[in-house]
Amino acid sequence: MYYYFVSVFGWKKHDENKDYTPDKRFALITAAHNEEAVIRYHIESLKKLNYPTDLFDIYVIADNCSDKTADTARAEGVNVFERFSKQRGKGFALEWMFNELFKMEDQKQYDAICVFDADNVISSNFLLEMNSKLKQGYRSIQGYLDTKNPRDSWVTACYATAYWSMNRMWQLARFNLGLSNALGGTGLCLDYTLLKKYGWGATCLTEDLEFTMKLLLNDIKTAWSHDCRVYDEKPVHFSQTWRQRTRWLQGHWDVALRYMVPLFIKGVREKKWYCIDGAIYLFQPFVIMAMLINMILAGVSVFFSEPIYEAAISGLMPGWFWVAFGILGYCYPMLGLILEKAPRSAYYYYITYPIYGLTWFPVTLVGLFKHGNQSEWAHTMHTRGISISSLE
Fold first, then answer.
1. I need a surface site. Which of 137, 169, 233, 287 has the fewest CB within 10 A?
2. Domain containing 290: what range?
3. Under DSSP, is residue 371 helix (H, G, I), strand (E, B) or coil?
């Protein structure tokens, strides 16, 4: 119910006073592992950014690549840093690259660092929007995460639905309420001095979530930029989404077990709701597990003449309430689609959305069992080379 309440504040998008005068200097960093099929389109979109070219530099980390990612990126005329290490994963690659940037301070001075994935294509106004947010005083900013291949399969359509709804009903809502948003791994912008002061240090399987919570413990909230988009390639097949989301939940469990209690205590002691809100977000896998256990026990009870289990919460409200609550849970994301003016195809695939939702139960369970292994990094293959000109 808490998130339904919060989501109401995303129904309306408020106007902002923006300053688009180019002023800030950016280092654009892309972590790439065997991305030769898509890296050219990614760099193309960065070169087309509507921002003075002398105010940003493009860096590609060719991380443990065995293909032509580095050669392809060099052919595009950007700065390529090749990294070969037994420490695999995006978090380690970014930590290494940030340190390389710090070493170049005598030659290069930046106000902020933006991080992308190699399969992304970026809207042309991205740096203008980040420039404006930085000038407003924000130091950690997340851009709108969109999907570049929503029509490829029912899996990509469900991903797109989840992100369109979440962007509007969760991220924008939290920004409107003055809470902290969550970094999404790509399309993020960090103040240079902030990163240097606190260090990255986020090397688990969900480095974005870890750094978000690290900032919250230091009283730094992440802001939301709704008007610039990063189009991300989503997995086409169910096996791919299973591996990717299992990895996410492995990381989420790890971050939750390390940061949830400290954030909650800090929020209570210092009367800072945004810290408590961060702890509530980290608590979500526990809620999913409780729901899973409840469903399993209720299902087992069906095979006995006398009920052996009844969820304590079920007696708090009449049966019709829980039916209505379930219908609301199914229909509510559609409001996000409407508000975000999602394409018509999104509604065709919506019937499959409950299947996608139900798969979070086993994914969360597997993530729990595997959360102790934060080095088991599984690369998601990307093949959809799409130009930004076809999306804007």
1. 137
2. 256-370
3. coil
Q: Are strands 140-147 and 223-232 parallel, antiparallel or unpaired?
A: parallel
Dump the DSSP string for 89-105: SHHHHHHHHHHHHHHTT
| Whether residue 215 is found in the same domain as residue 270 | no
Residue of 108 and 55 predicted with greater confidence: 55
Position 1 confidence tier, pLDDT thresholds 50, 70, 90: confident
377 domain-assigned: no
- Does pLDDT of 304 surpass 70? no
- Which of the listed residues 188, 203, 237 is the one where a domain comes to its end? 237
Q: Which residue has the tokens 């995006």?
A: 90
- Return all residues near 1 (Cβ < 8 A) that are at least 6 apart: none
Give the strand pairing for 223-232 and 121-122. Answer: antiparallel
DSSP state of 379: P
Tell me how far apart the alpha carbons of residues 223 and 221 are, in angstroms, rounded to a whole number. Answer: 6
Task: Give the torsion sign (CA, 198, 200, 202, 208).
Answer: positive
Q: What is the pTM of this model?
A: 0.90
Gap between the terminal Cα atoms of the chain: 36
What residues contact 312, with CB distance under 8 A and at least 6 apart?
A: none
Kindly state the tokens that stand for 200: 């990255």
d(CA 49, CA 128): 9
Spatial neighbors of 28 by CB under 8 A, at least 6 apart, are 46, 56, 57, 58, 59, 113, 114, 116
| 151 Ramachandran zone, left/alpha/beta (phi>0; psi -120 to 50) | alpha
Domain count, the chain: 2
